[in-house]
Design brief:
This protein has 392 residues and is an alpha/beta fold. A hairpin with a 5-residue loop joins strand 14 and strand 15. The chain folds into 2 domains: 204 residues, FAD/NAD(P)-binding domain (3-Layer(bba) Sandwich); 144 residues, D-Amino Acid Oxidase, subunit A, domain 2 (D-Amino Acid Oxidase, Chain A, domain 2, 2-Layer Sandwich), CATH 3.30.9.10. It is globular and about 65 Å long. Helix content is 26%, strand content 27%. 45% of the residues are buried. The structure holds flavin-adenine dinucleotide. Flavin-adenine dinucleotide binds next to helix 1, strand 2, strand 13 and strand 17.
Length: 392
């Protein structure tokens, strides 16, 4: 019978669990690390249902640095994750992200741009005329300008997840398909996990990497995390208009985003305040038709005639406290490590977060200090907002 004691257990085998396991094994292949995933088909996993966009365009210095590290790693990811001659093939397409700004938010956008540029990021401001010169199909009515990050882009999220997972296993991590019923603990110290089967696995470190299910899992230790699973929909549409020049990933002031998949086919979405909280994955075409379409036509008139292709839905793990990641050991529970509450921008953060959590578990100084995202800030009631008191 296998020894059921591990140096660290990842409770949740999405991109956070697998990236952290990878960084642990990479640093020390003698470690015993388990990744526990309740559904190895990943049907409802947020990583594979995400838009898989990465951007340097954040306001908080640490979020920008997290993305800078992502770009560094993505450049060699296919090769780094090679196992038995098979490369990861993440198809990273750096089409750039264009954030259009209305007059009300232009100053905020420029402040963010200043921080990004001070850190050496390739992001610039475009005037309405420059936007039109590059993308004549866009309307610039009410637009003050836009920030353009040429290195931002999208990739295949499933390939990234499989890359981390397969490489972590290749380096010696154990992948277990099972559901964690509870994180066990004794006198303020984590002791391991109990599975639905009743089986117990032991470790002084358990990472809550359960994505949208993180709050439920944390509750088993009596800890209440300010995280809601919120359903977000992604719609696929096709327009008739011939597109002379490929669009970057576009973000409009109303919150709508669109990404050109190929040819005339687009992926688009928007977060609504009344998106359902819970484990709902049923899409509703009317959300697109009644709440997004007209808005979209205002930004790109060519969307007036389109074909609705389909939709999917996944979960954002929304941090209702300040909209940013919650990272590191929970102050009142030794060994309970958190990688939670990414609020829709976690996919791109897996590289720096995985490395950071692995460093904390190994007790070494982090290369990039992400202490700003410690759960202590929740207990101290000191939120860390991306933009001026708003959740973005
Ligand atoms: C529609 C949509 C678009 C998005 N677009 C982007 C984007 O463009 N860029 C970006 O950076 N981010 C984006 N995100 C956010 C991103 O997907 C997440 O932040 C990130 O993937 C979170 O990874 P995770 O490992 O924490 O969670 P997940 O990938 O959900 O993994 C958690 C895993 O834990 C497992 N699990 C849960 N409970 C248990 C348990 N008790 N026992 C065992 N296993 C358990 C689940 O089955 C799941 O596989 C988007 C999300 C959605 C839904």
């Amino acid at each position: 019978m296998k020894n059921k004691t591990y140096d660290a257990i990842m409770a949740g085998g999405g991109v956070m669990g697998c990236a952290t396991a990878y960084y642990l094994m990479l640093a020390d292949p003698t470690l015993k690390v388990a990744i526990i995933e309740m559904d190895a088909t990943y049907e409802k996993n947020s990583t594979v249902l995400s838009d898989a966009n990465t951007r340097l365009q954040f306001n908080i210095k640490e979020n920008i640095q997290i993305s800078q590290y992502a770009l560094e790693k993505l450049a060699t990811f296919d090769d780094d994750m090679e196992v038995d001659g098979i490369k990861a093939k993440i198809a990273f397409k750096q089409e750039g992200n264009l954030f259009l700004s209305d007059f009300e938010n232009a100053e905020n956008a420029k402040a963010g741009l200043t921080t990004q540029q001070s850190l050496g990021c390739d992001v610039k401001w475009l005037s309405p005329d420059e936007i039109l010169a590059g993308y004549p199909l866009l309307s610039v009515d009410g637009i003050a300008g836009a920030t353009f990050g040429a290195l931002d882009g999208t990739m295949d999220p499933h390939a990234v997840l499989m890359g981390f997972k397969n490489k972590a296993i290749d380096l010696g991590a154990e992948f277990i398909e099972a559901e964690v019923r509870e994180i066990t603990h004794d006198s303020g110290q984590v002791t391991g996990v109990k599975l639905i089967s009743g089986e117990k696995l032991f470790s002084n470190y358990v990472l809550n990497s359960a994505g949208g299910w993180a709050k439920k899992l944390a509750k088993t230790t009596g800890i209440e995390l300010p995280i809601d699973p919120v359903m977000r929909q992604v719609f696929i549409v096709e327009i008739e208009e011939k597109i002379e020049r490929e669009f970057p990933f576009l973000f409009f002031p109303s919150g709508i985003y669109i990404s050109q998949e190929h040819g005339n086919r687009f992926m688009c979405g928007k977060s609504f305040d009344d998106d359902p909280i819970g484990f709902d994955f049923v899409t509703n075409r009317r959300t697109f038709e009644e709440r997004m379409w007209e808005d979209l036509v205002g930004h790109i008139p060519a969307f007036d005639r389109l074909k609705y292709i389909g939709a999917w839905a996944g979960l954002y793990a929304v941090n209702t406290f300040d909209g940013n990641a919650i990272l590191g050991e929970y102050p009142t529970m030794k060994g309970l490590m958190l990688a939670n509450g990414f609020s829709g921008h976690g996919f791109q953060q897996c590289h720096a977060v995985g490395r950071y959590l692995a460093e904390l578990i190994r007790g070494v100084s982090p290369v990039l200090d992400l202490g700003i995202f410690s759960p202590q800030r929740i207990l101290d009631n000191k939120p860390v907002f991306e933009g001026h008191g708003k959740l973005v």
